[in-house]
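Take a careful look at the sequence and tokenised backbone pasted below. I need to know what the token row says about the fold.
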Amino acid sequence: MRLKQPVGIVSNTLLETAQLVREGLLNQDEIVTILKSQSRNTAQIEANIQEFQKAIAENNRSIPEAYQKFLKG
């Protein structure tokens, strides 16, 4: 799936970062940089999901109107 890979990358990066923190191999600036980067990545994933939901709602008129509004956010 289109979302599985980006979510997996964020997850793996965070797990690897946690391990590096435990080992004392990252300083505070490096940790902050990684966290900000992953925050931007998750924001992009969220935007992609919203775009996908909107497209589904707009292209599938058989979906009940209330659910279409929910999908469009």
Q: What stands out?
A: The two ends are 22 Å apart (CA to CA). The mean pLDDT is 85. The helical segments are 4-22, 28-59, 65-72. The first helix runs from residue 4 to 22.
